Amino acid sequence: MLVVDDDPAVAEVVARYLERDGHEVRCDPADLTGPPDLLILDMNRLAVGHELRARWPVPVILLGEAIDLVDLDADADDYVTKPFSPRELALRVAAVLRRARGSIVPAGTGVLRDADLVVDVGARHVRLGDAEVTLTAREFDLLVYLLRNPRQAFSRTDLLDRVWGWAFGDSSTVTVHVRRLREKIERDPTDPGRIITVWGVGYRYEPVS
Asked: Partners of 80 in the beta sheet?
């Protein structure tokens, strides 16, 4: 995997910790001889991610300040806010790799429908009207979970547990994924009609049909 951070000391600490878990880690894109299993990028180094993902479909974890990640307009499989513990990052890495390798998927198959939104769970395919919707693995799992549990309010902690499979973690990653999901399936993401904010609680899915 590749770790790129503006602070070389941070990249080195992360690399050493992940190497202890048995991963082969590089901190310089020039050292790559093929597609890495995973990119871990500081949000200020997005150009590296864009260049590599143009060549290979590589999962990405972004690192940054919480407020920067919430405002960030970039696809990623996960987001980790600074400062973070190396152990927490290692757990996120393991989860993203399992998902990328297909061992974490929404249970069951079938097709979920809500008006013009159609989700084929088995094929991991989403359409909105006549348009195909491209989602990251985590966005897809979040959408499936909400569609299967309409009109129920879930806290960010609930969603971290039930979609991410984490007993603990930074709930801002849920906020980021909800925002990005709204941008892809809502007619007006600033006034969402499907993924509703329940103030003081979290979110619920409100069917259109």
From this structure: 63
State the total domains in the chain: 2
Q: pLDDT per residue over 163-200, tens digit each?
A: 877 666 677 888 989 999 999 999 999 999 999 999 99
The candidate with the shortest Cα–Cα distance to 139, out of 180, 169, 185, is 180
**Among candidate residues 178, 177, 180, 182, the one with its CA nearest the CA of residue 193:** 182
d(CA 3, CA 29): 9
- Is 138 contained in some domain? yes
pLDDT digits (tens, 9 = 90+) for 52-96: 877 877 888 988 876 555 545 556 778 888 888 888 888 888 888
Same structural domain, 124 and 197? yes
Distance CA 206, CA 134 (A): 21
DSSP character for 23? -
Q: State both tokens at 148.
A: 């299967």
Report the C-alpha gap between 203 and 171 in whole angstroms: 12
In a domain, 105, yes or no: no
